[in-house]
Amino acid sequence: MTRKIVIIGGNAAGVNAANAARKTDSSAEITIIEREKYPAYSRCGLPFVLGGEIPELEDLVVFPSSHYQLMKIDLRLETVAKSIEPKAKTVQIEDKYGKTETLPYDSLILSTGAAPFIIPIRGYDLPQVFAIRTIEDGRKIAQIMEDVKAAVIIGAGFIGLEAAHALSEKNVKTTVVELLPQIVPTMFDPDMAKIVQRKIEEHGVDLMVNSRVTEILGNKKVTGVKTEGKEIPADLVIMATGVRPNVELAQVIGCETGVTRAIKVNMKMETSVPSVYAAGDCVETQNRLTGKPSLIQLGTCSVRQGKVAGTNAAGGYATYPGAMASAVSKFFDMEVGAAGLMERVARSEGFQTVTGAVTGRTRADYFPGNEEIRVKIIAEPVLGRVLGAQIVGGEEVTQRVNMLAVAIERGMTVWDLAKADTAYAPPLSETWEPVVLAAEVTSMRIRR
User: Fold this and answer.
1) Whole-number average pLDDT of the chain
2) Which pLDDT belongs to residue 325?
3) Are 82 and 100 in contact (CB under 8 A)?
4) Where are the domain boundaries for CATH 3.50.50.60 in the chain?
């Protein structure tokens, strides 16, 4: 009997679930239901299209239509799931023309993603107020960017700062307003955040921390924003205030949600409803260091969760062990990244901490084009186990973050890292790897 798999949501988690399901069961009937007009694409790339680094929004689409044909995946675009009957194992769908259909399933995968959080303040519904979540968001912003003189971005996470870079590249006067006392508050400690802030401000972007936007000014169009202390002129506002998991369909059919208000799943990505799996930004995962429930909405997590969900939904076996929120970004002339726990989070979880940081170079000091890089390591003060790391540099940040992520996952100590046999060549690295130096500094503080 042919297995029927229905996937609701066709972006990172959904399409990877479909691909994994097909590799597991070559004869299964696989259907993807996607409300947007585009198949899976990179949401993370949207700011870089706006900044001109990527030529077209359509370049973000991951797979051509021929991929779905080759993999025998029935892709239904501009179609929504109206209801699910878990006892009957059916999904009622409706396409853009209003035509409805009932699809039976043996396994159902919810990859419903997340929606931007729009602060419900006065003026939030003006036509020049946007999130950056979909290709259509990017298209609308691109259409008006040529006429924009000043913009305000609410939120100083990675997306907000990437958007600031894009606008600055188009000579738009940009102000970033952050409610918390520092930028990148979920990834960096205050000392590293200050380095990033200083470098961004050198490019003419105004960064306001400890500030709340209370109103978006304007009648039929945006003229500015009001904070608790001043008014800022603007004709474009971007809300980069995070996303909230889409769990409505899951809750209706009885899927349990966790403390993060996302769908609760086990290591096989199974929900509390039989034959229903979930993956991506809509699910709660486990932090691999603390063992506690966590909401880690990163593309890397979505892809891995989707692969696990698709494999199991098709009758195979796979598990997802959780994540550490390893992440990197690039804006202006710097790369930034982090893995593991920040100092504040580590202490709140009951860890004692000791830290060490060094500023090194990415190539031999005498080699043209060498860039500054700062590495910070957070460790336990007795055993020396590495708990977290943060890096800011001009280049080569990503693979150092990956190196540290593996070290953290494997329970390595700062003494292990300090003895790492790293490579050297003048155009590629310094003789003393900055990660090794940071580990040495941290180990000396432990000995003291």
Assistant:
1) 96
2) 92
3) yes
4) 4-41+57-113+244-313, 118-241
Q: What is the pLDDT of residue 229?
A: 79
Give one word for 204, left, alpha or beta, with left for phi > 0 and alpha for psi -120 to 50: left
Mean pLDDT of the 178-192 span: 97
Asked if residue 108 lies in contact with residue 6, where contact means CB atoms within 8 angstroms, the answer is: yes
CATH class of 4-41+57-113+244-313: alpha beta
Half-sphere exposure of 228 (CA within 13 A, CB side): 8
φ, ψ at 161 (rounded to 5°): -75, -35
Q: What is the pLDDT of residues 89-129, one digit of tens each?
A: 999 999 999 999 999 999 999 999 999 999 999 999 999 99
> Considering only CA atoms, which of 150, 166, 145, 185 is closest in space to residue 332?
166
Residue 259 tokens, joined = 């403390």
In tens, the pLDDT along 263-275 reads 999 999 999 999 9
* Cβ atoms of 193 and 183 closer than 8 Å: yes
**Do 60 and 41 meet the contact criterion of CB atoms below 8 Å apart?**
yes
- What predicted TM-score, i.e. pTM, was given to this entire model? 0.94
Residues marked active site are found at 44
193-231 residue pLDDT tens: 999 999 999 999 999 999 999 999 999 999 999 998 799
Place of tokens 């540290």: 404
With residue 91 as reference, give the H or E element that holds it: strand 90-95
Question: How many CA atoms lie less than 13 Å away from 60 in the CB half-sphere?
Answer: 26
pLDDT mean over 20-47: 97
| Nearest by Cα to 134 from 18, 221, 49, 224 | 49
Query: Is there a contact between 34 and 80 (Cβ–Cβ < 8 Å)?
Result: no
For residue 170, what are the contacts with CB-CB under 8 A and spacing of at least 6? 50, 51, 52, 145, 146, 148
Measured CA to CA, the distance from residue 13 to residue 57 in angstroms comes to 20
Closest alpha carbon to 84 in 61, 54, 109: 109
CATH of 336-447, one of 3.30.40.10, 3.40.50.10210, 3.90.45.10, 3.30.390.30: 3.30.390.30
| Residue 367: both structure tokens together | 């080699």
The per-residue pLDDT for 271 is 98
DSSP conformational letter for 96 = T
